[in-house]
Design brief:
Elements: H1 4-9, H2 11-18, H3 30-63, H4 69-101, E1 121-126, H5 139-146, E2 149-150, H6 151-157, E3 164-165, H7 167-187, E4 191-193, E5 198-199, H8 201-207, E6 226-227, H9 232-236, E7 242-245, E8 251-260, E9 279-289, H10 294-312, E10 316-320, E11 332-340, E12 345-354, H11 358-363, E13 365-370, E14 376-380, E15 382-390, H12 391-401, E16 409-410, H13 416-419, E17 423-424
Parallel strand pairs: 4-8, 7-13
Antiparallel strand pairs: 1-10, 2-3, 5-6, 8-9, 9-15, 10-11, 11-12, 12-15, 13-14, 16-17
Helix pairs in contact: 3-4, 7-12
The structure holds one RNA strand.
RNA sequence: GGAGAGGUGGCUGAGUGGUCGAAAGCAGCGGUUUGCUAAACCGUCGUAGGCCUUUAAAGUCUACCGAGGGUUCGAAUCCCUCCCUCUCCGCCA
């Protein structure tokens, strides 16, 4: 959600910048809609002022013991007219709100212009893809061979794009979650939270998934509960309609949650293996900051996510998304892409974004601190988040990058205390 | 699931149809006083939107007392629906 005054004042500059997005909003008609809305408000409010005055007079006259029947009839007529005008103004207001809610965030000035993924700019590359003396396998072959990944039974139990993990495969997933949470809480200064996995529509509106992207979500029939597509939703909305103490900022939170996505429209993409699932696990990093510190915090957040990959010894690169590849609510996004031998390429494993005040405005998240002359001032906070990391894809990256010629998987040093194993060997649980 | 109580400004808490945007207290902010601290006293102190204005401030108007409807000339106050919180009972991991 944009600030209306700014949006009006800088309409031309903002629309130019927005036109660089992949699905540029149609801003034509904004000025007219805004003018009509304001005219309607004016007309209705003028009448309301008259009614309030008349009502006061009636009260006075009554006190004086005079007859007010004639005045009442008069005011009643005004009331009816107000009801009509309010209805009109309400319709325009809804239309206007809907219009504004559909306008994506403005890309930060440091974001490169571009049409799509091909125009993203690489900012870092760390580690070397492993050189294998044999033909490396993809996880969808290696996993079932080791008896740690079972897609067929998952399809039976639930359906396509679900997975069952067995033995050390299940434990690897759990180890990764604990490892990531420990690093972020002990080394990077985040506070762990465990939020609800179901969220209501107001929360989804707050972070920008609704109203535009309902088809990407799972909804519980007959309720206002939706399966959270990312911990960003419950965690960012923790402070919806609240004012944070400035002295508590920046507030750094991390949360483990499962994530659920309908993946409507992605048929045929990443159909093999567990790269794209309806249910996956993620450790998410979320920050609330003052406006002037949010870009510095975005760099730190991205580095915190990268640190997990460094510690696991996984090769990756970081790209800054161009204007044509950014998400709806984001002002700037870094994608971290891990090397996957099975794909012979890099695959997104984290997406770190600064939303500036876009989400905070929708969700009404403010902060307060002493301003000039000691007077407390409050303003919208900036919100940021990033995966730290997507656990399922990290699982894939470890299995594929650390595979040995004999079909086993070497466990990265940092993970051994968590997994209590140095090597993933065939599990044989299925006989 | 059953029975009951309740949702008012940052907090506590008055207010049951007519200057109530809302008493009072606390916290906050400005000031006065006092060696410092503390205390006392005075003042100030919600949010959003419209108009005015070069912007802002000031001013002015409108709306907001969980949400949405309704009754009325007039609703925090009466009626209806919904949501949430608390207590007790039942059930349950």
């Amino acid at each position: 959600m944009h600030d209306l005054a700014t949006f009006r004042a800088q309409f031309d500059a903002i629309s130019t910048r927005l036109s660089l997005r992949a699905n540029p909003p149609n801003l034509e008609g904004f000025r007219e809609l805004d003018a009509r809305r304001r005219a309607a408000i004016q007309e209705a409010e003028e009448l309301k002022a008259r009614r309030n005055a008349a009502t006061g007079e009636i009260a006075q006259l009554r006190k004086a013991g005079e007859d007010t029947a004639a005045r009442q009839v008069e005011v009643r007529a005004i009331g009816e007219r107000i009801a009509e005008l309010d209805k009109q103004a309400g319709t325009l207001e809804d239309e206007f709100r809907q219009f504004l809610a559909g306008v994506p965030n403005v890309p930060h000035e440091s974001v490169p212009a571009g049409r799509g993924p091909e125009d993203n700019v690489e900012v870092r590359r760390v580690g070397e893809p492993p050189a294998f003396s044999f033909e490396p396998k993809a996880h969808w072959d290696l996993g079932p061979e080791l008896g740690i990944l079972d897609l067929e039974r998952a399809a039976k139990v639930t359906g396509a794009r679900f997975a069952v993990y067995w033995g050390l495969g299940a434990r690897l997933e759990r180890a990764l979650i604990n490892f990531m949470l420990d690093v972020h809480t002990r080394e990077h200064g985040y506070t762990e939270v465990l939020p609800p996995f179901l969220v209501n529509s107001a929360s989804l509106y707050g972070t920008g998934q609704l109203p535009k992207f309902a088809e990407d979500l799972f909804k519980c029939e007959g309720t206002d509960f939706w399966l959270a597509p990312t911990a960003e939703v419950p965690v960012t909305n923790l402070f919806r309609s609240e004012t944070l103490e400035g002295s508590n900022l920046p507030l750094r939170l991390c949360a483990y949650t499962p994530c659920f996505r309908s993946e409507a429209g992605s048929y045929g993409r990443d159909v093999r293996g567990i790269i794209r699932q309806h249910q996956f696990q993620k450790v998410e990093l979320v920050k609330f900051t003052r406006p002037e510190q949010s870009y510095e915090e975005l760099e730190k957040l991205t580095a915190d996510a990268e640190d997990i990959l460094r510690r696991l010894g996984l090769p990756f690169r970081t790209v800054v998304l161009c204007t044509g590849d950014m998400g709806f609510s984001s002002a700037k996004t870094y994608d971290i892409e891990v090397w996957l031998p099975g794909q012979n390429g890099f695959k997104e494993i984290s997406s770190c974004s600064n939303f500036e005040s876009f989400q905070a405005r929708r969700a009404s998240i403010r902060y307060r601190e002493p301003g000039k002359g000691g007077k407390p001032k409050s303003d919208f906070a900036h919100t940021l988040n990033g995966s730290g990391l997507a656990v399922g894809r990290t699982w894939v990256a470890i299995v594929e990058n650390y595979q040995a010629a004999d079909g086993t998987v070497v466990v990265p040093e940092a993970l051994r205390p968590y997994l209590n194993a140095e090597r993933i060997t065939p599990q044989g649980v299925l006989g």
